[in-house]
Amino acid sequence: MKDLRITSLNKSFGKVNVLRDVNLHVPSGQIAAVLGPSGCGKTTLLRTIAGFEEPDRGCIEVGEITVCDNSRSLPPEKRRIGYVPQEGALFPHLTVADNVAFGLPRKLRRLGRVEEMLELTGMANLGRRMPHELSGGQQQRVALARALAPSPSLILLDEPFSALDAGLRTTLREDVRTALKESGTTAVIVTHDQEEALSMADVVSVMKSGQMIQTADPVTLYKSPVDLDIATFVGETTQLTANVHNACANCILGQLPIQACCMASVNQATIMIRPEQFIIQQPEEGIRAQVTAVKYLGHDALLTLRILDDNPQEDLEVSARVSGLSNYKIGDIVGLKVDGEVMAYPSENKRDQMTISV
């Protein structure tokens, strides 16, 4: 197992700066997700790690080997890095087994490496099939088996589930994570799917305009995003203006404790509350609110509620997540309570007076 370390990586195409001083460390045997919208540079980052693109400057190390720095760059075939493209890219004229065996030395073939990888990826007994006889999910499994077969130091996955339907994506990403963990391979997956990144990765890096904005474990990233852009990118939020005093945010929802990572020294801030932090109670308990919309998602539902205040300064709506078994309807009056600590961010004109330390 090898770790991956990227230092001050830069890449431009003409006058467009695609990667800007990118830094990333993926410990040995862990899975990292690079999360970001289309066009943020994440696929270019992956191709640069693989050696398909040459950086303008910066350093990439895999284990103790420097595969790229300002003075030299190893060709892709000498980097011992596996690559799984978006749609598998299997050879259509070769069987499943021959696809996995492609590029393997004879010794590894004789040792049963192909059968071992097919077993690991859940494709045992399908080695004689042709790619066109497989489903999209099965083709991705074969592509992963082919990438793992040479025992690479690192494996890269480029939006590997984007072409699959929602149900298959969920199952396959669980299976792929299991296969990667069992093989002990260090991996980097790029995706624009927040759920995919949070559920698969040990560490998630959010990328925006060619820069890494925050790198953290999934729980920290979701609970304590460093800014409101990341907060809204990785999940639904309610954002309120609040007065800050003694590590508490005073707002229309009451006095709410602020997370310790928010070092607030201003009188006013914007607080961020996740939908699952809202607890629905009886109307006489907590803050009174009225259900204005219900978005049913099966396993849960997202309620939009308008705060009922005697002297509201503005119409205020919040989003609350409840069980899919709940039966709330538009017009219902409920009580609201906020559970746990909230994140606080400086108001635009006070940004220099407040920092978020994660």
Automatic annotation (TrEMBL):
The keyword Heme belongs to this UniProt entry's keyword annotation: no
Cross-referenced SMART domains: AAA
Organism for this UniProt entry: Scopulibacillus cellulosilyticus
TM regions (residue ranges): none
Keyword annotations of the record: ATP-binding, Cell inner membrane, Cell membrane, Ion transport, Iron, Iron transport, Membrane, Nucleotide-binding, Translocase, Transport
InterPro entries, per the entry: AAA+_ATPase (IPR003593), ABC_SmlMolc_Importer (IPR050093), ABC_transporter-like_ATP-bd (IPR003439), ABC_transporter-like_CS (IPR017871), ABC_transpr_FbpC (IPR015853), Mo/tungstate-bd_C_term_dom (IPR008995), P-loop_NTPase (IPR027417), Transp-assoc_OB_typ2 (IPR013611)
Matching PROSITE patterns: ABC_TRANSPORTER_1, ABC_TRANSPORTER_2
GO molecular function: ATP binding
ABC transporter domain: residues covered: 4-234
Superkingdom field: Bacteria
Protein name (database record): ABC transporter ATP-binding protein
